[in-house]
Write the structure tokens for this entry.
Amino acid sequence: MTKISRAVSKAVGGYNRDKDMLIQILLDLQSIFGWLSGEVLTEVSEQLEVPVTQVYQVASYYKAFSLTPKGRHIVKVCMGTACQVRGSPQLLDIISAMLDIKPGKTSDDMRFTLETVNCLGCCAMGPVVVVDDAYNSKPSTPTLKKIFKTVK
Ligand code: FES
């Protein structure tokens, strides 16, 4: 049994092989692997006895799922209205240049994935940049450089 089939077996079994829990099962597997590979989706299809097309449809429909590998560190720039007004588009350009990746992409060394998100619920802190789970309010360029240098 491979690592993937074991993980899928545990996730599917955790929900008593309930087909209605497909989304939750995929969420659990994404949190384990960081993304949903073709192998994971095929394994879910077989173990849950759901057509593979249905599994792919669900996985590709919801924005919460990633069908491509993600970097070890996720950088999220809030593009909600309050943050936009406070300069998040310029901040996104700066970060994109610093990391040399476009929004939605992952660096070649798999170190960073740059994402944009809508309102993180802390508008007064805007513009907000989240690196992994750390929220940064109005980070300056030197602060960002320090953060990106610190994370491995
Ligand atoms: S708009 Fe960015 S936190 Fe609300």
